[in-house]
Amino acid sequence: MDKLHRNERMSAMLKMLTDSPNRIITLSHFCELFGAAKSTMSEDIDLLREVTKTFGLGELETVTGAAGGVRYRASVSPEERLRCIQGVCETLSGPERVLPGGFLYYNDILSDPELATRMGRILATAYFDVEADFVLTMETKGIPVALMTARELGIPLVIARHALRAYEGSAVNINYVSGSSGSIQTMSLARRSVKEGTRALIIDDFLKGGGTARGMVDLMREFNVTVVGMAFVMETTSPERKRVSDHRALMTLDITGTGEDAVATVRPAAWLAGAAK
Amino acid sequence: MDKLHRNERMSAMLKMLTDSPNRIITLSHFCELFGAAKSTMSEDIDLLREVTKTFGLGELETVTGAAGGVRYRASVSPEERLRCIQGVCETLSGPERVLPGGFLYYNDILSDPELATRMGRILATAYFDVEADFVLTMETKGIPVALMTARELGIPLVIARHALRAYEGSAVNINYVSGSSGSIQTMSLARRSVKEGTRALIIDDFLKGGGTARGMVDLMREFNVTVVGMAFVMETTSPERKRVSDHRALMTLDITGTGEDAVATVRPAAWLAGAAK
Q: A18–B16: do the CB atoms touch at under 8 Å?
């Protein structure tokens, strides 16, 4: 291959880095690929770091040591995360969003690839430091955001199911009390899908009473897995007391009135407006 | 902002384009953002087109006309798609992958963010031209790959459910015969999640008899939606005759023997080795 110009090399590097978020790529890998010296690569990376910062495109970090190299994180700034979630809240504030029974329709938001990507990035930014080994979610609606969070963290996604399927092998089942119906339900996870002694980040779509979330925590205990964080796309303001603590949500939902008079108020969660991540 | 150098501008452009796959971004948008002339932007794009091509990072296309601009597609070359799927097949060929009952364990492959991204790109490449308005999948295991396919196509994902939930509003239910159990099952989709007269691309994890796939086609007919393509991650070689036609799969699965002697052979699908997409 002909020798590349810096602009071409830098573009290709950034594409490769952003395609493997939160994973360290060694300088030697780039040196070999582009046929350039380490010092040149370091200069490229310094320039790229400035570019991503200037345009709010995430962060490039140089990691030193034996396993060192460069790592891309799609970090979202406090301003950007608040603006993004405010936009989602506006979309969800229309009266056509409230369904009979006082439910909010937001399936389309949850499975929109672009929004799921953004919400995943916001959540990943909040949990870069907890060193999770995998993301856990409970089927179905939280899967897209959980997947995108896992992608940005560079770790696998594990999906708990309602029922054991033969094609998943031996499984661990636990029973939990569903907050919405008060009924006893089953949560099932294939034995081989999780390694003992690892660390889980729980991501799900909806937190009301916290029954399902509590179930996921109990399930992880069966696997001897530490839960290092817990986040939801939407959290109801009522009941105020949830069956889990130390969690985050992106939005809060307050439904007032009943039947045809039901009004839903969706707001960005308070922590999003803070300066810290 | 200070004027940027070409290398910085190009890197930022490529990052923005790849963050919105298959969506047209106008030249004026970039001109405004970077404070540069259209001719300069065009030169940048020509250079970026070469870069992405050289490193197999997808394609940049210039779209002319009133709604014109530049569009990034994460197209995967025939060589790269075959290499990727061959790698997955090797991972799946270990004896520990066969479960009692002759099932193959591949949940971890389906929900791995990096693999789901790659498989989504391969499938998107095969369906760029069908002009789908949305991707349809049936919960649960196919969701990650379906989401990533939708992301690369720049269209929404719609998820059919097993049961109607109150919080999804009025829904269309259809019954279908599940291939694996032979039992009658229900598939449900919220009325408001799909617009009449649009075009669907069906993506799911597994095709055996085709009962579920047939159900999805019937469901789309209820919405007056045209199915413009159908693809699966895995297809069994037996039964040879499926209840749907005109479909693709990424891999074929052949299980021979029973009980402890069951052997699974997973191969890349034949079309992957072809030159056409």
A: no
Q: What is the pLDDT of residues A130-167, one digit of tens each?
A: 999 999 999 999 999 999 999 999 999 999 999 867 66
Same domain, A20 and A117: no
What confidence score (pLDDT) does residue B219 get? Answer: 97
Q: Do A111 and B15 touch (CB under 8 A)?
A: no
ipTM of the complex: 0.95
Domain boundary residue, one of B73, B89, B120: B73
Distance set, CA A16 to CA A5, A30, B53, B75 (Å): 17, 10, 13, 15
| Shared-domain flag, residues B105 and B153 | yes
Do residues B17 and B88 share a domain?
no
Contact at CB, B114 and A151, closer than 8 angstroms: yes
Which tokens is B210 given? Answer: 């085709």
Optimal mutation site among B5, B11, B45, interface A, most CBs of chain A within 10 A: B11
| Interior angle at CA B22, CA B21 and CA B24, nearest 5 | 105
Q: What are phi and psi of A127, to 5 degrees?
A: -125, 20
Cβ pair B114:A48 closer than 8 A: no
Q: Number of folded domains in chain A?
A: 2
Where a domain ends, among B56, B73, B90? B73
Count other Cβ atoms within 10 Å, centred on residue B72: 28
| pLDDT at residue B1, as a whole number | 46
Residues of A in contact with B151 (CB under 8 A): 113-114, 117
Residues of chain B with C-beta less than 8 angstroms from the C-beta of A109: none
| A/B interface, count of CB pairs below 8 Å | 181
Same domain, A91 and A129: yes
pLDDT in tens, B74-105: 999 999 999 999 999 999 998 889 887 778 99
pTM: 0.96
For the cut 80, the answer to whether the pLDDT of residue B3 exceeds it is no
